[in-house]
Amino acid sequence: MSRTVTLIPGDGIGPSITDATVRLLDAARANITWDRQLAGAAAVAAVNDPIPEATLDSIRRTKIALKGPLETAVGKGFRSINVALRQTFDLYANIRPAKTVLTGLKFSDVDIVLVRENTEGLYIGIENYVKIGDDPHAAAQSMAVVTRFGADRIIRYAFEYAKAHGRKKVTLVHKANILKYSQGLFLETGRMIAQEYADTVTCEEKIVDACAMELVMRPERFDVIVTTNLFGDILSDLTSGLVGGLGLTPGANIGKGAAIFEAVHGTAPDIAGRGIANPTAVMLAACQMLDHMGEGALSQRIKTAIEQTLLERKTVTGDVGGTATTDQFTDAVIARLGRG
Ligand code: NAD
Q: Which of 185, 194, 211, 335 is exposed most, by the fewest CB atoms within 10 A?
């Protein structure tokens, strides 16, 4: 039976890499009906609304979306649509795996799953300026909110993920030495949950700055990482760098009632419109989506075709050392699929 998925092409390189992904899934006979919807700058241009109600309605109906990156103006304009989507559908768990596929990199055996809290922390959007004298922007403040409920469900998600995927260790990443309340509550909650899983999963604690250093020195030491929103956002770009860059790493945003799959990277304005973006991250996000839909075998088949194409390095995009266009890489993956 065909399953309907909301497709949001997104901005910048988004339309080209989501088109490539749809082409790959169609070639793999994924039996998906795509409900195309707008969001981001494309939606502002078309209907003057960054998240049209039709898009939200579609996700409410399908409960699953594949999304290209969306542009967010820095320091002005509308709030991040990504953050708004995650909050609207309470997509509290952001799962960002980074696994070495390419050879010849500094590290050959990175296999990290970063589990990022996706709805709280410094990203709740409570910010304001403070006027002093004549200066309306004399000071600015942003509030970080961590709740026991939010910390509990994301840390539990990380331990359950570790158990279900045969992983041995969860690293609890925090800054409780300085932010004693918000980060302290996250750590305290983590320590309690870790005890429940002590038989099957080891837990270690790391302060975020030391964790960042260790990730670039000895990344093979890490297995599952769980952390708060901002740290997860930053560290997942770092783990992407360990395996060859942002063109390669996907992310799932999971809630109880809906899930949105996307790349870790953004709209890549520096290469948009040139047909040279690497579509691997969105393709792997589509594989996460297939896993989520119970299509594990199909997901594995597609993943293998992507990995073999990358490993062969004959037809890969510029970010990973090749000269292929987005379309040429996609054709090569589809050809592999046929041979597999
Ligand atoms: P970016 O991730 O778009 O780009 C960083 C660098 O990585 C650039 O040099 C880019 O060319 C390269 N890159 C990224 N994806 C690539 C790909 N698939 N193939 C080849 N190279 C790739 O980060 P940025 O420039 O800081 O952000 C641009 C915009 O994207 C901003 O508006 C930001 O808010 C938005 N953004 C959106 C999301 C999202 O929708 N989930 C995530 C991050 C950033």
A: 335
